[in-house]
Amino acid sequence: MDMLAPPPRFADDVRRGLLSSPKQLDPQYLYDALGSHLFESICKLPWYPLTRAESALLERHAAEMVSSFEGGATLLELGCGCGEKLSMLCEPLVDRSAPVHLQLVDISQAALDLSRRTLARFGVPVTAHQTTYEEGLHRAATCREPGLPMVVLFLGSNIGNLDPTGARALLATIRSALQPGDALLLGADLVKPHDELIRAYDDPLGVTAAFNKNLLVRMNRELGADFDLSAFAHEARWNADQNRIEMHLISQCTQRVNVPGAAAEVTFHEGESIWTESSHKYTPEGIAALAEQTGFQCTRQWIEPHARFSTSLLRV
Ligand code: AVI
């Protein structure tokens, strides 16, 4: 099979991840073009209520969420997706004729373009940064509108895909880009009954399984690997000690896989896993504690009671 040019660090990360113990891969690699489409489909599944719960909170409470910024604000979204959530938060400010500047940070140019189109109807300045969260925060801090407070939006429970150390580090980075009077609006999925969590990450239609197994497809395509898809099974595990759902790909037999693009030959034992993603779940108190540890104060939380999802306002 022809090998397509993989992103520069992919081969190195795959080599390191598959030769380590336990075997693991960075979840960012789940999101190639097909993976991103599969994730959009996951968000529409009846068993994955997270996205709908957050939209419901924003639909109901957007005006309250930005009520401290009625004199105007720069809204900066990390991982802007299609710009729909940013629109919901922008609208109440624009309706009050408050000055609004929008800043978008995303690694995907397609997401930035889509968001720009969604946000065009407001007729307010939009600055897009195609880069990492850290670099985007740095750039946004240097070109912020003088006199306007900044509200960073980190929604969709993307915080959940970071381990506790990574989550603290990112919040500390956000904090260091902000000034007194600024804020962070944080969306985080909450701990809920075990069976609901498992169904959300191992749905009966097999869409999440396809999302997970697509990582094998990607290694076959981009690194010339010879993973046999039928020899691996998707598994979602709740790790109660760490409050996280883990996604794994479980080898169904003892086998050897060749990954020439990563210069690796990998042996799998029957039942051995590749750990592909963690999704940490929070408690409302845990979010408040995380805020305190990173220089914020959690001043308000909105909770969707059925799906157990939270949006928290963290003030500097
Ligand atoms: C993007 N992220 C918040 C999703 C989550 O729930 O952790 C990714 C996902 N993985 C499987 N289903 C959804």
UniProtKB/TrEMBL annotation:
Keywords: Methyltransferase, Transferase
Transmembrane parts of this sequence: none
GO BP terms, alphabetized: methylation
Signal peptide feature range: none
Domain of life: Bacteria
Family matches, as InterPro entries: EgtD, EgtD_Methyltrsf_superfamily, MeTrfase_dom, MeTrfase_EgtD-like, SAM-dependent_MTases_sf
GO molecular function: methyltransferase activity
Boundaries of every Histidine-specific methyltransferase SAM-dependent domain copy: 10-315
NCBIfam families: egtD_ergothio (TIGR03438)
Designated name of the protein: Histidine-specific methyltransferase SAM-dependent domain-containing protein
Organism encoding this protein: Chondromyces apiculatus DSM 436
